[in-house]
User: What shape does this take?
Amino acid sequence: MPSYSFAASPLPTAKETHRPKPAPLRSPMSRAGSACVALMLGSALAGCAVGPDYAGPPKLALPSHWSTNTAPHRDAGKLDRWWLRLRDPLLSRLIEEAIEANPDVAKAKAAVREARATLQQTTAGLFPSVSGTASVTSNKSSAGSSSVLVDSAPYSLHQASFDSSWELDLFGGTQRSIEAAAHGAQSAEEDLRDSLVTLIGDVAAYYVEARGYQARIALAQRTAVSQRDTEKLTRSKYEAGSGNAVDLAKATAQAASTEANVPTYQAALAADVHRLGILLGRPPGGVASSMAQSAPVPAPRMPLPMGLPADLLMSRPDIASAERKLAQATAKIGAAEADRYPAVSLTGSVGTSALRAGDLAKYSSVSWSVGPSITVPVFDAGKRLATVRIAEAQRDQAFATFHSTLLTALEDVENALVSLSRERVRATKLTEAARNYREAARLSRSLFETGSASFIDVLDAERSLYSAEDSLIQSKVSAAKDYIALAKALGGGWSDPVDVSTPVIVDTNTGPHFREAQK
Assistant: This one.
């Protein structure tokens, strides 16, 4: 059902004031007495609001420390530019380029601009709106009896008017909408920061993986060369009559098996390099030349500053964004609730008409009206109440999202801490194993050359050495990726201001112009 509107009686128009023996004109200010009363009432109730007031982030039970018993760092939360701890200049340059050109970051910037424009649009609801119109019409009329028709001379009528309206925010509905839009803008800014955290972590992870595959390719190629040397030695023994065909076949097979790993690693390396190009906003091969020369797997040499679990509320942008969305949903309840109360508006218009444009400013041709109006919801079959219930349910969903985001963040940190600490222990053991297998392979090869050891010993030692060294490279990659995952989980990211004011597409020739044919 539609709402019913009640308007104040209109003030006398200019035509009425020109009747014979008119009463003395009253002051326009006294004519607008009721409007002034409504204005003062609106000012008195400027602080009035309906709906729940947001009291800040919900107080949820959080652990007092991390399960690994990591001591809080005195610089906890200082995770800006954490990737510099990996000490890889090329990685740092790629990250900076990605921040400038990544499409997801550009999308997040546009979302911030949209949210800020929405806030500006909503704030405009607190102010009156004024519109003006002007017209010039040519007129001619005829009068007379059926036998005699008299035409009047044609004339032009000039008209101009200004209309204004102002809805008083008596119950804070507009203020609640502004509050919701402001929280939405803050959430969009946190989403931008979150996209930067994700982007930086992805670039670093794919870069580390690529360096790992380069190291594994180099290892496979070195090992294959060594195994081909063993094959030659076995063939020489076989041709000299001191070896057998079985040993020769096994030597050849082992070298071929190792060489077969190279194409697999090369394909994986190409995929990582292609992904890096996409993250930098380039074609897939955009960073191939930069990554052509092999480099060591980045190894973190400094620990990350660890704080307390409660610090995630401030450092993790996805948590901050979810909290701002909860505040936004809470404000929307008040906006929906205010729609159930009466709405008071002030409307006014000033118009003038004359036969000549120069007479438009004369008082005798001026008419005006001003007065308040009130709209009272009478019956809507529960539509407005249902809107409030919808807003409340959406607030509860936002709270559940915030709670889930916080728990996921705690899980991310705990997983990264455990993985990093365990991977470091594993790398230590793999380093020891590779060192001993390297010595075993050297000794078994020497003994085989002198005939003091069987070929099986050489084959087993070389296979074990290759496996241990390959596992060590993978462990270094895993440790670096765990370090990166921990930095992401703690909310580390870009610290410099990000310019969101410049759109990706800058429109030109947007004023009045002849439209070109669609392409």
